[in-house]
Structures are given as structure tokens and as C-alpha cells.
Amino acid sequence: MNNRQTRGWKGCLGNCLRRPFESIRQWRFPREFRIGQAMYPQGCQALLNELIRASGPPGGALPEASAEHAISEVLARFLAEVGTNLWRLRLKMLQPGTDQPVEDMRRPYRHVESMWDTLIQEGVDIHDHTGEIVPEGGVYGLKVLACQPTPGVGRELVLETIRPTIRYRKQVIQMGEVILAKPDKQTNQVAPPAAPEGGNTDAN
Q1: Cα separation, 137 vs 116, whole angstroms
Q2: Which CATH number fits domain 124-189: 1.10.490, 2.30.22, 2.70.240, 3.40.50?
Q3: What is the pLDDT of residues 76-133, one digit of tens each?
């Protein structure tokens, strides 16, 4: 896929992804002043399917050993960008700590979830690391942006995911970026026992 074709795909898919954002902007206004949601464009899933399949070489297949992992650099960047922004939008629509959308976002959330499912079906895995415990040997395959002492934490864990890890057909196309929480030595330190009142109470 050349750069001109990629720009064309980006423009078409951008129009598909723009519709949920247009609806979200209306939530700033009282319900009676909101503009009705425009009809979602047809064929968005087919468009994304065709884009992903276009990552293969034109005119023939690669040797079996390398075909599974073959992906163009342009497509990898594009999928990482779309996946990250779709992940962020999806998080804003969900109730904290659940996989259910807030009430006012149920209609536009259906479109976002449809695009999310399409990416999954075509082999794109978007992984949020928040809450994961860091292995004893340290963080592997993640970019740690900060490590924050946190009261009540017994061992290192991912406090916040800034960018998710994204894989396309099991190949990493974007490394996750995270903030870690680590035990706070000052607050977790056990205080020494208090001295008994009245001085030395040892028996004579």
C-alpha cells in the first residue's frame, strides 16, 4: 500500500470515526438544544476489514514462515493511532470500573463498540495494563513513564495506562506506556513499640 492509498483510506475511515465525536460534542448542551445524531455511515466495518487485509503484499502471498508477521510500517502506525484513540474514547464512555456505558452515551457507544469488535475480529488486540501486578523480575515489554510511591501498596503494580499495548496478529505494533505504583516505605514502615509508662517495669 503506497502513501497515496494510505491517505485515501485514512480520509474514509476518519469520516466513519468522526460520527461518534460529533455526537459527544452535543452532550455539552442541555438535552432540548442538542442536534439530532446524524445517520452513521454504512459500510464502516467493511472499510476497516479491507484496510487491514490490504497489509498483505500485492499480487501474491509471502512465504508461509513470514506471512503471519508481515505488516507494513505505515499500516502499523495507522492501526496504533486508531486503536489508541478508540481506546481513550471508549474509556471516557464507560462507567468507572465497569464495561457498561454511562446512560447518556449508550447510543454513540454502540458505534465505538462496533469498531472495537471489528478490530478484534481482524487480529488487533488493544491491551490496558491498569491494575496489573509487576512480576518479581520487573516490567517486560512496557515503557515506564513514572514510578509513584503509593500508600497501601504491597508490591509494584500498574497505576495508570497512558498508552495501551497494541498487537496486530500477535505482533507488537505499539509498546504500552504506564505509570507504576510502588510501596511507600515511609507510610508502610512499622512503627517501633512505644516505651511503657512509668519507666523501667522489670521485676527486681
Answers
A1: 33
A2: 2.30.22
A3: 999 999 999 999 999 999 998 888 999 999 999 999 999 999 999 989 999 999 999 9
Instruction: Tell me how far CA of residue 55 lies from CA of 22, 165, 170, 174, in angstroms.
Output: 30, 20, 15, 17
Q: In sequence order, which residues have a C-beta less than 8 Å from that of residue 163 and are 6 or more positions away?
A: 84, 174, 176, 177
Instruction: Work out the average pLDDT over 12-22.
Output: 53
Give the Cα separation of 24 and 108 in Å (integer): 8
Distance from first CA to last CA of the chain, Å, rounded?
92
- Which residue bears the cell 495494563? 129
Domain borders along the chain are 1-122, 124-189
Backbone angles phi, psi at 68, to 5 degrees: -65, -30
Cβ(55)–Cβ(13) below 8 Å? no
Q: What is the pLDDT of residue 105?
A: 92
